[in-house]
Amino acid sequence: MAAVETAKKTVEQFTAASNVAFKDGVEKSLAAMNEANSYSKKNLEAVVAAATASAKGAEALGAQAMAFSKAIFDSNVTAAKSLAGAKSVQEVVELQTAFAKSALETYMAEFGKMSDTVSSSVKESMKPLNERVTAVVEKFQAAR
After folding, report:
1. Where are the beta strands (DSSP E) in 11-137?
2. All residues at 6 or more sequence positions from 68 whose CB lies less than 8 Å from its CB, including other chains
3. How many Cβ atoms sit within 10 Å of the Cβ of residue 26?
4. The pLDDT value given to residue 71
5. CB neighbour class for 128 (10 Å; exposed up to 12, middle 13-18, buried from 19)
């Protein structure tokens, strides 16, 4: 009879230990899944923020290009009027030279502005993604 009681007690202890281990395993799994879902949500939010920043940058660049196109058109019309009113070949050459120099300077200045716009747009677009990568790397380093 003592052997039966000992076996029964051993089975009960084993069952209790198994239940505790199973419960702990399920709780850890659920916690890991919740954390993974949280990271996925934050990653998706970062992608949306990056796409939004990219769209704003493209919009700014488009507006800048339209303004530049209008300014160039106006400049070309003014130059054409000046050339049409020239009284000598020498004056035409001088006007054309001045226009070409001005146009080149304007193009170079606008190219610099557009480069700055693109650069800042890329930085703003990558910022949320870089933050997520940093968070993940920190998480893995902490887990070591």
Report:
1. none
2. 110
3. 10
4. 95
5. buried
